[in-house]
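--- STAGE predict ---
source: upstream dedup step, 1 unique chain passed
mode: sequence only
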Amino acid sequence: MIRKASLVIVGALMGATAMSVLYSAGVPAQAAGPSTYKELSIFGDVFERVRAQYVTPPDEEKLVENAINGMLTSLDPHSSFLNAKDAEDMRTQTRGEFGGLGIEVTMEDELVKVIAPIDDTPASRAGILAGDLITEIDGTAVRGLKLEDAVEKMRGAVNTPIKLTVIREGADKPLEITVVRDIIAVRAVKSRVEGDVGYLRVISFTEKTYDDLEKAIQKIKAEVPADKLKGYVLDLRLNPGGLLDQAINVSDAFLERGEVVSTRGRNADETRRFNAGPGDLTDGKPVVVMINGGSASASEIVAGALQDLKRATVLGTRSFGKGSVQTIIPLGESGALRLTTALYYTPSGTSIQGTGIKPDIIVEQPLPEELQGKVRAEGESSLRGHITGQNETEEGSGSVAYVPPEAKDDIQLNYALDLLRGNKTDPSFPPSPDKAAAAKQ
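--- STAGE serialize ---
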């Protein structure tokens, strides 16, 4: 059964720093006072002086854009102006699909290295292989480009060709491969079976997340008989967040009832409460949720809901601590305004802004020797100009955000697997719904 939590205002984006976002047509504001209009006239005077007298002719569009962003970033780190291109990029992230080639890439020796082509995509059909090094994109040298710039060049309109020059181990000369772009659907959830445990990694919260999660759970059920399945690991580490409605749906997938999250704005009548409906997709099997300093926003909503409602044991290190909601206000062809309009609260009525989610079981993941001293703990509380949370202390939020590439080195994952298999005992596992119900009486 597919269940969708509906919002009064439709959900939207995932931003670079993790956004739980709503779309809105905007709310009329009260007229500003005379002093405000006087300050605006000063801004106009300064703009004209700069435009007319600066030593070199300035880009007027950039001047205005930077002025707007200066105003918004003075509010908090997550409010900003999105020009037309940024707004379109945001919509692409939200949809979870784009026109492209279908390859996972990284940067190596200033060249784009193919980690793996995604099955049944233009790249795999054209013969791109894991390990290929891309040196040119449509005749433009890759050296000197940032990875994001190279990726942007490879994206484009569906059914348009792109020529890649590739160095391949064993080939005596560079290969020229033409790939025709197609719609690439980004998987929001990856899954596998770890013996008798189902492993679910939610990468981001896009429009596809709940559907991907449902399919992943069904696949695990088909692979492991119900009497053999010990439970599920829900991995939210390094998950920067995304759509608020998808966070609600993912939480609902593991719940039969209860409040998932509430959002509270400037005025009391702006409070919204979102509840789970019947139908636990995992049939009540034990769940361990893993978080770290890279778990933010929508992923914190899920962890907080399953923790407060005693549906799961949360394991790992303290999460990022982004407890605010952004509204996307379209500005026509000019782009969009991303504005913080509310804070969200876990079912117990707790704001995690600046504090994050504290795991039931703290398990540190040591950094490898080559990363020690290079990776530091960061969280919302360390961001300049962040909204101070009502529960924020000097301890702050966040922790080191690192996950080993190999499962055998993943101490947090192996601890979670041992918990589900009964090889480790802890008073926080399994959680007791009866205690949670009693606490709410």
